[in-house]
Amino acid sequence: MTPTPLAQPSLQGGVHLADWGVIRAAGDDARAFLNGQLTQDVLHLGDGSARLAGYCSAKGRLLASFVVWQRSPAELLLACSADLLPATLKRLSMFVLRAKCKLSDASAELPLHGLAGAAALDALGADAPAAAWGRVSRGAADLVRLPDAAGVPRWLWAGAGSPALPPLAADAWRWLEVQSGIVRIVAATAEQFVPQMVNLEVVGGVNFQKGCYPGQEVVARSQYRGTLKRRAFIFDSEAAAVPGQEIFAGSDASQPAGMVTAAAPMPDGSGRHSVLAETKLSALDGSLHLGSADGPRLVPTALPYALEFEP
C-alpha cells in the first residue's frame, strides 16, 4: 500500500457541517431505549465521553451511524448524516411505544461545526478533550474530540458560539473524514453494510457484550463464525467519486466488488482524490476500479488502524 499523503497546512480551522444533523433523545427511559436500538452500550456512557454507534435493520444492515454523547443522565444527543436524519428519526420513533423517551430533531438548535488543526487546538485551550471520544461542555455547547486523521487533531462542536477560526474548506474536512477510516453512513449507503463490512467494530462502534438490538444476531454471527469477506479501505484515485458509487475488480465486469462510502479531493492540489470504500477481500489481489471494470483505478493506501484479514 502507498503511504497516505502528508497533512497540508490548510487542514486547520473551522467549518459548519451542513451535511450533519442531531437527534435528541430525552426522558427517563431515553438511555434504556437507545441501548435496545443501537450497536453500542449507552447505559454506561459517562458524562465525559462520546461513542460511535450503529443503527441496524433486522437484517443487520446499517441504517445510520452516530456519534453519541449525553448532556445529562436523561438527555442524549446523536450526531448523524443530515440526509438520513428524518427517516432515521421516524423509524426510531416507531419503537418508543410506552417508553418515557421523546425523540426530536435538534439540528437547528445545535448546529455542528468541525474544528481541526493547530489553530483549533490553540483556540480551544488546555481543557479541550485530548483523547479521542472525550467530551466536555462549553456553556450551552458540547465539544467532542474525534480521532486524529492524517496526523491532524479534530473536534466536533455542537451548539452556538463555536470558536472564531480560519475557515476550513468543506472538502478538506471530508478528506479528513476519509483519512480517519471511520465510515459515516449517508442516505446513498444506508442498508448496504453489516457493521463489520465497514470496520465499525474495529473503531469501537459495536459492543458485543451488551443486550439485544435490531440485527444483533446477524452482527454476532458475522463476528464469531469468521464468515466476513468484506472490509473498508482507503484508496487513491485520479477521478472523483461519490458515496454509493460501485467499484469493480478489473477481472470481473459482471458484478460490483464494493461501494464508495466517502470521497474527497486531496488537499495537496494534485487533482487526485481519496476514497473510503467497502470491498470484497478477494478483490484486493487484483486491480480495483471506480464505476466499471475499466474505470479509473483505485490504489490502496494505509488505514490509520490495524485491520486483520485474509484476502
Could you explain the architecture of this structure?
It is built from 5 helices and 16 strands. The protein has 311 residues and is an alpha+beta fold. It has a domain of 168 residues: Aminomethyltransferase beta-barrel domains (Alpha-Beta Plaits, 2-Layer Sandwich). It has a 6-stranded antiparallel β-barrel with strand order 11-14-13-12-15-16. β3 and β4 form a beta hairpin. The radius of gyration is 19 Å and the shape is globular.
Give the biggest sheet.
Answer: 6 strands, antiparallel, barrel
What is the molecular shape? globular
Looking at the structure, the CATH topology of the domain at 13-180 is Alpha-Beta Plaits
Strand order of the largest sheet: 11-14-13-12-15-16
Average pLDDT over all residues: 94
Strand percentage lies at 25-35%
Distance between the termini: 14 Å
CATH H-level superfamily of the domain at 13-180: Aminomethyltransferase beta-barrel domains
- Which parts are unreliable, with pLDDT below 50 for 5 consecutive residues or more? 1-7
CATH 2nd-level architecture of the domain at 13-180? 2-Layer Sandwich
Structural class: alpha+beta
Number of helices: 5
Strands, count: 16
CATH hierarchy, class of the domain at 13-180: Alpha Beta
